[in-house]
Amino acid sequence: MEVIDREGGRYSDWYGGHCVAILGHSPPSLARALSRQLRRLVFYSTAVRLGLREEAARRLLARAGVEGGGVFFCNSGAEANENALKIAVEVTGRKRFVAFTGSFHGRTLLALSVTDDPILRAPFTDLLAPVDFLPWGDEGALGTVDWTRVAAVILEPIQSMAGIRTAPDGWYRAVARRAHEGGALVVADEIQSGLGRCGSWFLSHTLGLAPDVLTLAKGLAGGVPAAAVVVGRAVRERLGPQSLGSTFGGGPLASRAILATLSELERLDVPSRAQAVEDDLRRRLTARPDLVLRGRGLLLGLEVRGRGAELRRHLLAQRILTGGSRDPDVVRLMPPVIVGRREVARLARALLAFPPPAAAAGA
Q1: DSSP for 98-127?
Q2: Assigned architecture for domain 2-25+269-362
Q3: Continuous segment of H or E residues that includes residue 17
Q4: Which uninterrupted H or E stretch holds 152?
């Protein structure tokens, strides 16, 4: 999980290329699988069946515990969310959505419609779909929407860009109940939280969100561009044959990379590994109550009031890469799942060496 600069300096990567390098950089198992595939078939049209694509779909459905469902492969998280919302429109006949303050789902038009970022949205306001943005984690606000007019509610189990924000477990169940009672679909954006990173293969299942649609991307293919929309039987049976399409989605290289990545994640037992790393880091930071650890597993945020940028600079000086967020107080940690005790100890030493608030003020 290291990256090396042009002078040979080695950096411990707790950012993971924005949560993409799930197995680290150039993992040998993925490199071998791609090398073999490059010599066999690089690309062919989705107009014909591809055994690799079908196998990747079966593996994802099995891992998600979905019987009789379907998978649509595309190339990025924004594409996955865009198509998930299109599916909801086709299935329900409705054209309104519910999303939440702090959300980030991508920059294509429907995905941007449900993204709570005024700066990104401003140039395209007239093109965006109608959306009710509800306060994150507020169960009472769920009753302010006419759910019988809503095609889908979309949410991230953990709001990453907003600063690793979670909500009470009961709130997720309430979202699912309200949506399903009104005939709306539940779309779980597991682009960052899925594939074992948060201590379970899909965090939405653990939280009782009961999604009708799952979206996956980021580390799905270990760094090769790939994304997937996973739907249950009830949704799949209501889609027409021309509902979705992609030239490159689920191509030979992406499918081979997905299969290799899933095999390695399963071999590593990533959910248990992620939980163990979180527990280890929390234990090491008990001496620093000013460093508040948010999130679950290996999708974490370090909250330091008024000092987020200062903490990132401190860690970079120790050759540790981290991510920022829209919350200036929160530094994000999204490392490859191969992170071990040595890397955790290195990060913890650097964090414990960060001047506490009183010392910083005195300086």
Answers
A1: EEETT----SSHHHHHT---HHHHGGGGGG
A2: Alpha-Beta Complex (3.90)
A3: helix 16-19
A4: strand 152-155
pTM (two decimals) = 0.96
Other Cβ atoms less than 10 A from the Cβ of 228: the count is 27
CA dihedral 327, 19, 338, 356 (to 10 degrees): -10
The pLDDT profile of the chain, 363 residues, written as one tens digit per residue, is 999 999 999 999 999 999 999 999 999 999 999 999 999 999 998 889 999 999 999 999 999 999 999 999 999 999 999 999 999 999 999 999 999 999 999 999 999 999 999 999 999 999 999 999 999 999 999 999 999 999 999 999 999 999 999 999 999 999 999 999 999 999 999 999 999 999 999 999 999 999 999 999 999 999 999 999 999 999 999 998 889 999 999 999 999 999 999 999 999 999 999 999 999 999 999 999 999 999 999 999 999 999 999 999 999 999 999 999 999 999 999 999 999 999 999 999 999 999 988 766 555
Q: How far apart are CA 340 and CA 274, in angstroms?
A: 10
Q: Burial of 18 by CB count in 10 Å (0-12 exposed, 13-18 middle, 19+ buried)?
A: middle
Tokens of 293: 């650890």
| CA-wise closest residue to 216 among 72, 28, 114 | 72
Cα 88 from Cα 153, distance rounded (Å): 9
Other CB atoms closer than 10 Å to residue 214's CB: what's the count? Answer: 28
Domain residue ranges of the chain, discontinuous segments joined by +: 2-25+269-362, 28-267
Could you tell me if 170 and 67 are in contact, meaning their C-beta atoms sit under 8 angstroms apart?
no
Q: 317 in helix, strand or coil? A: helix
CB 239 within 8 A of CB 36: no
CATH 3.40.640.10 fits 28-267, yes or no: yes
Any idea of the CA torsion for 138, 140, 142, 146, to the nearest 10 degrees? -150
Cα-based distances in Å from 203 to 60, 87, 151, 171: 15, 22, 23, 14
